[in-house]
Amino acid sequence: MVFPNGGPLPRHPSQLYEAGLEGIVLFTILAVMIRLGALKRPGLILGSFIAIYGFARIVGEFFREPDPQLGFLWGGLTMGMLLSVPMIIAGAIIIVVAWRREKPNRVPNPVEGTARETDYSPLQPEIKKLIKTSGPMPVWRYMELCLTHPQHGYYVSRDPLGREGDFHHLA
C-alpha cells in the first residue's frame, strides 16, 4: 500500500497487522483460555496477556520501518522488539508461577452441598417461620432481626451505639 505522506514506495499496513494481532487475535486467545478454565489459576490470564502481547509486538515490528533516529539496533532488532523481550520473559515467569501455585479450593455453593456448621444460624428457624407465615421479608426487616434479636442478635453482646466502626441501629 502506498501511503499519502509516506513516500513513493509501497509499505505494509502495519497498523492493521498490529490491530489484528494485538486486538483480535490476543482477545480471541484469552477468551478461549477463559472458556477452558484459565481463571481458576490466578495470574495465568495476566501472564498470558503480557507474553502474547509482547510476541505480537515483535511480529508487528517486522513489518514496520524502524524509528529514524534509532534505526536497527543490536542484531538487526528494532527498539520495539528489544522492549518487547522483557514483556515476554515477565509473562512467562507469571505463567510458570501461576501453574506451580496450588489451585485454589472451590467454595461450595450452599445450594449444591450440605450445610456446614458455620452456615447455621440460630435465627434460621425463626426467619424461615416468618417467611412461611408472612411471605417474602424485606432486606431491612431481615437486617433488623439479625442485629437486634434479643437472644441471637449481633448487638446482644456488643454496644448498640457502635464501637470500632460498627454501625448502629436507630429505633
Task: Write a short abstract of this structure.
This protein has helices spanning 14-35, 44-61, 79-100, 124-134, 139-148. By secondary structure, the protein is mostly helical.
- Main beta sheet strand tally, sense and closure: none
**CA(first)-CA(last) distance:** 76 Å
Q: How many domains make up the 3D coordinates?
A: 2
| Overall geometry | elongated
Q: What Rg do the Cα atoms give?
A: 29 Å
Q: What is the residue-averaged pLDDT?
A: 78
Note poorly predicted spans.
Answer: none
What fraction, in percent, of the residue positions are helical? 40-55%
Structural class: mainly alpha
H/E element order? HHHHH
Total count of strands: 0
List key phrases describing it.
171 residues; mainly alpha; 49% helix
Structure description:
With 171 residues, this protein is mainly α. The chain has 2 domains: 14-100; 117-156, no CATH class. 49% of the residues lie in helices and 0% in strands. It contains 5 helices and no strands. It has helices at 14-35, 44-61, 79-100, 124-134, 139-148. Helix 1 (14-35) packs antiparallel against helix 2 (44-61). The longest helix has 22 residues, at 14-35. It is elongated and about 85 Å long. The model has no long low-confidence stretch (mean pLDDT 78).
Topology (elements, then pairings):
Elements: H1 14-35, H2 44-61, H3 79-100, H4 124-134, H5 139-148
